[in-house]
Design a protein that fits this description.
The structure is a homotrimer. The first copy, chain A, is about 50% helix and about 20% strand. By secondary structure, the first copy, chain A, is α/β, with parallel strands linked by helices. The first copy, chain A, is globular, with a radius of gyration of 18 Å.
C-alpha cells in the first residue's frame, strides 16, 4: 500500500502499523512535543486516504510514541505560508478540516487512545475520531486557541457542543484550559478515563473485538449514528473561516508573538503546562 | 378494558397491573429469559394502544418478573416468517419501530425500571420510554446486534446518539458489549443507577409523584421536550430498513447460525454473558 | 452607565458591580427568598441591555447575596396583571423569555454561580447563561412548575433536553423535584458541583481568566457554539405560550391557590423544601 510505504519509509513523524489487515494503528512519533508541523498534513492525508480506500480495514487506533504528548497544536515556529495557501479539497473545505470530516465518515471505526497532551489540532483529530479513551494520569485535552487569540479551526465548537452540551463546551473552549482525564470523562470529552496501566489493553481489546465483526454491518450501523450526530459541514467551514480571520488580526499576531517569546512551541513549561501558560498575562 | 383483559387472561408473557387509574405497571413475565417471541408483538401493541387511548393513565412503569432479565432480543428459534411479513402501521413504519415511536409520543409518562438484562428489543423499548432507572448490581444494558452481524432495528442509533453523544453511542453499539448499571449512568444510557434494594421504592415514589400532577400540564410540557429531543421518524425507518437488509445477508445468517449452535436464545452462558459470547470467534 | 446607576441607586434587588471594565458581577439581593417579583423584570432588562451594548465587558457572573437562595420563581402573591400584559419585545417573544434569549446571545460570557435555591425563573436564568457552577452543599436546582400545574415558561424543555438528553430532562421537569449540586453535575444541569468553600474562588478565577482574552475572538468562537447548541426561538415561544395557557386553566389556579394557602411564596418549609412541598397532596 502506497500510504503505508510513505509513512514507514519517508517520514517517521506518523507511523502506520497494520496489526492485522482489519486493524491498523497510527502512531504519532514526532518528539519531543508531537507538535503539528506543516509536513504532517500530507502524511495525515495519505493515511486517511488509505483508510478510505482499503477494503479490509475495519478499525484504526490513533496513539502516540512520545512521552507526555499525544498530538498538539500547529507549530507556529515553522514556515506556515504553504499551509495557508493550500487549495481546498473536494468538499470546498480547507485540507485540515476536510481531513477531519473525511475521517469521521471514512468506512473505518476510529479510536483515539490518548496518553499525554492533546490540544489544538491534536484535540480536533481526537474529536473527529469515533471514540476517545484517556489515561487517567497522563491525558490532558484542551483547546488552547482562544488563549492565544485564535478561534479554533478544526471544528471543536461544533463537536464539543454536541458531545457535552453548550455549557461545558463553552467552558472548555473559552477557558482554553487543560482538561485532565477524569474531568474529560465527566464532561463526555472522552468516552472513558482509566488507569494508565489499563489503557493499552482496553483499547486493543475493543479494537480487536470490533474488527471481528462484519464490516458491512459495522458501517451501515455507524452511518446512522453519523446521520444523528455529525455536525453539518457548514459549521466546520464557518469555524475554519473564523480561525483564519482571527489569525490575521494584529491583536492575535501580538498575542502569539508574546507567547513565542515566552517559550511557546518549544519544550518546557509553555507546552507541558499550556493551560497555565496562556492564562498568564 | 380490552387490553387489560387480553394481557391478564389470555397470555401471561406481559402483565398489566393498574396500581391506580392514573398509574399502571407493565411487567414482562416470560421465563426463563424474557426473550421477545413473535407472540409478544400483539401484546405490546395492545398495551400501547391502551396507553394511548385511556383518559386517566398518567404514568406507566415497565419492569420484569423474571430473575436476571428485563427483556431481551428477538427469539431467533421461533417462527419468524409472520414477523417479517407484518403490514406496516399507520405511519408506514414496521410495527416494532412504530410501537416504539408511539410509546414515546403516547400521552403517558413511561419509566423503565431495569433489573437484569435489557438487550436488543429490551434495550430499544427502554430507550423509547421517557426515563430509565437501573439496578446497580443487576442491570445490564446492551445492543448486542452488531456482534451477530445485524444492524439494530429499533432506533438505538438515533436514540443513543442523542442521549450520550456520538462517541459513546458508537462504542455502545459497535462494541455490542454489556453495559452494567454504573457505566450506563455515566454514559446517560439510564437516568440513574442505584442499589438494587432502592430501585423499586425510588421508581414507585417517582411514578406516584408524577401521577399526582395535572395530566394536561404533564403532557403539554412533555410534548415540548419531545419536540426538542425525539429523533425524526425517518431515522427510525432507515434503521429498520438497514436491519432487515442485514438480516438477509448470507454472512449474517451464518453468524446467527453459529451463535445458535453455541447456545444463543437458550438459558445458559450465551444469554447470561451475551457480551462475552458474541465477542468470541 | 445608565443601567448601573439604576441598579445601584433606585433598587437594591439586583446589584451590578463592575469588578473591572471587562468583568461584571450581577448579584440578586432580594431577601428573604430572592423571589422574582414583577419589579425585577425591568431591572433584569436594564442589565441585559447594558451587557449587550457595553463595548468593554467580556464576562458577567450572576450570584446571590441571600442565604439559601440564588433566585427563585415568580412571586404569586404580587400583583401580576402588569406582567401578563407586557408588550412583546423586538423578537415577538414575551419580555421574560426574550431576555433569556438575549442573554444567551449577548456579546458577553455569562456564568451562573449557584449557591442556594435556583428554581423556576432562577433555574431558567441560570440555563440561559453560558455556564453554571454549583455549591455542592448549598445549591438546589429545579423546575418546580409542573408540580403547581404550570408548564415552565422560560425554556427549560428546550434547554435541558439539549444539556442532558430526553430522559433526564423529562425526569427533572416532570418530577418537579429538587436537584442538589452533585446530581445536577451528573445530569449536566450544571458544569460542575464543588465544595461550597471553593465556589467563589473557582468562578472568580475562571471569569478573570476569560476576561483576559481577546473579546472579538471570544465572541466569534462563542457564536459558533451558539449556532450548534442554542434552541430555536420558536421552541421558547411555544413553551411560553403553553405556560400562559396552563396558568389560565381552573385546575392550575386551584393548585396554586392551595399551595399559597399552605405557605408557597413565603419564608418557611414551602420554599426551603419546595420539592417535597409540591409533591404532597
Amino acid at each position: 500500500m502506497k500510504g503505508q510505504k510513505f509513512a514507514a519509509t519517508q517520514n517517521t513523524q506518523i507511523r502506520l502499523t497494520k496489526c492485522s489487515p482489519d486493524y491498523w494503528r497510527v502512531t504519532f512519533d514526532h518528539p519531543p512535543l508531537d507538535i503539528f508541523g506543516p509536513e504532517m498534513l500530507p502524511q495525515v492525508n495519505e493515511i486517511i486516504t488509505a483508510l478510505e480506500t482499503d477494503e479490509e480495514v475495519k478499525v484504526v487506533v490513533f496513539d502516540s510514541a512520545v512521552e507526555g504528548f499525544f498530538l498538539i497544536h500547529l507549530d507556529f515556529l515553522a514556515k506556515l505560508d504553504d499551509l495557508a495557501h493550500l487549495p481546498p479539497g473536494p468538499t470546498g473545505l480547507h485540507p485540515w478540516p476536510e481531513m477531519l470530516v473525511r475521517l469521521s465518515r471514512a468506512p473505518v471505526v476510529s479510536i483515539a487512545s490518548i496518553r499525554g497532551r492533546a490540544t489544538g489540532m491534536g484535540s480536533e483529530l481526537a474529536l473527529a475520531c469515533d471514540m476517545r479513551f484517556a489515561s487517567r494520569e497522563k491525558a490532558i485535552l484542551s483547546q488552547f486557541e482562544v488563549g492565544a487569540g485564535l478561534v479554533p479551526g478544526g471544528g471543536p465548537m461544533a463537536q464539543l457542543s454536541r458531545l457535552m452540551g453548550r455549557g461545558r463546551a463553552l467552558e472548555v473552549i473559552l477557558s482554553a484550559n487543560d482538561i485532565p482525564g477524569d474531568l474529560a470523562e465527566l464532561y463526555g470529552y472522552v468516552n472513558r478515563s482509566m488507569p494508565d496501566a489499563d489503557l493499552d489493553g482496553f483499547v486493543d481489546a475493543l479494537a480487536t473485538r470490533i474488527a471481528s465483526f462484519d464490516k458491512r454491518t459495522i458501517m451501515d450501523t455507524r452511518h446512522l449514528v453519523n446521520v444523528a450526530s455529525l455536525p453539518p459541514d457548514i459549521e466546520i467551514e464557518s469555524g475554519w473561516n473564523a480561525c483564519v480571520a482571527s489569525m490575521a488580526r494584529p491583536a492575535t499576531q501580538q498575542r502569539i508573538k508574546t507567547l513565542i517569546e515566552r517559550g511557546f512551541c518549544k519544550p518546557g513549561d509553555a507546552e507541558t503546562r499550556l493551560g497555565d501558560f496562556v492564562g498568564k498575562r
